[in-house]
Specification:
The protein is an all-alpha fold. The protein has two domains: about 55 residues, no CATH class; about 100 residues, Oxo-4-hydroxy-4-carboxy-5-ureidoimidazoline decarboxylase (UraD-like, Orthogonal Bundle), CATH 1.10.3330.10. The chain is built from nine helices and no strands. It is globular, with a radius of gyration of 16 Å.
Length: about 170
């Protein structure tokens, strides 16, 4: 993701090219970019982001849950999207001590057992410690509140990814 794109350039891409460039913004869900393309031309980055958010908000509940489930567990050693690898490494989740790793795994599992999807947080806004605090707090949420919180966090992640990709 070293290449930065100008909005004008994105506006001139075919749907296929647009989706190839922006399809990874929303973890494993390129159809968000594919559908947002229909709203072009975009005046600016914010207009593009809002078009993508509208697509997410119009998705069925099942598709929203699938979007949430596309995200990796925090601090895990499983295969994940390159953007997720970089984001987690940025705050040291790739270098957890054995006890930290075990705590993340325990909380990931407790969270998935309760809600049926992985714990999502925009890690660039956090430290390891604040993520662990968020885990503890959010485990007390209702299913619906936590689904909405996960979508809010995913939207923050998408915005950060867009910011890094677009001039």
């Amino acid at each position: 993701m070293n290449n930065k794109y100008a909005i004008a350039k994105l506006n001139n891409l075919s749907q296929e090219e647009f989706t190839a460039v922006l399809g990874k913004i929303w973890e494993e869900t390129p159809e968000i970019a594919e559908k947002a393309w229909q709203d072009k031309p975009f005046e600016n980055l914010e207009a593009l982001y809002q078009a993508m958010l509208a697509v997410v908000n119009q998705m069925s509940e099942a598709k929203q849950v699938a979007l949430i489930k596309a995200h990796p567990d925090l601090g895990s050693k499983t295969k994940m999207a390159e953007a997720s690898v970089q984001e987690q490494a940025g705050i040291g989740l790739d270098r957890l001590s054995k006890s930290e790793y075990q705590r993340f795994q325990f909380l990931n599992q407790a969270y998935k057992d309760k809600f049926g999807f992985p714990f999502i947080v925009a890690v660039k806004h956090h430290t390891k410690e604040s993520i662990l605090e968020a885990f503890e707090t959010r485990l007390n949420n209702t299913q619906e509140r936590e689904k909405q919180q996960a979508l809010t966090e995913i939207s923050k992640i998408a915005r950060l990814r867009l910011d890094s990709l677009i001039d």
